[in-house]
Amino acid sequence: MPACDGPESIPGLVFYENEKVEELSTKEPELYIYCIGSWYDLYMKSVEREKAIELRLTQKLGYGEIAKQVKVSKSTLSRWLEDLPLSDERMLELRRQTWSRGEVKREKFRQTMRAKRDEREQKIYLTQKKKLSHISDPSLFIAGLMLYAAEGDKKSRAEIAFTNTDSFMVLFFARWLEKFLGIEQSKLRIQLHLYENMDICAEERYWKKQLNMIQTQLCKTQIRPMKAGGFSYREPFRHGTCKLYIGGVLKKAELMLSIRAFFDTYSIRSQA
Q: Is the pTM of this model over 0.90?
């Protein structure tokens, strides 16, 4: 039976170190059973998700064929594969081979709904982009402070470090550092955290291109092993995690004290 060390996202799940599992099974058998059962359920669902994505990416199968091999509900399968549509050419090819009329209709329906969603979201995006096109420097300054307050390192007194999976956020913060703290882009460094099944060289090229950085700014990439029941990270929108950082006691103090000043000021105002 596996040790109770599964992902922390399970609601209410109590975690114990491996050496304590045997003691738990004796003293609190009901909690032990719940812990192991919850971990196993999540593990099996992760395996099924990985299998569904693998079948879609490597074999280009339709929902119907994948559903025969992955025993989950249609809504779950649809959610897992919503960002992995088949091309029109592939759908035509499959229709000529073995697809039923109903299978074609299902794929077409999902494609149509995805197109409607994209069109709706594009309108919202353009409206907001126009609204934000003339944002003031003070507003931009506050935006950077709030971004770091949410995602930045607060422990070190001598290093500014911002970590995120979104290259646009990392690029925004890099430019923000130059604009408001006077930190030159050439002095910044990045470190990637990737998984062993990723194309490491391709991901390093992706981040350097997105952030307009050169090889000397890329520190040694950290490669993590895949955990049992973990996600495959094979989807095209996944590129690992990037840590943008630079050393500097005074700059870190300026950043953190600016954040504190903002919250102190507006927390007092909100109570008035």
A: no
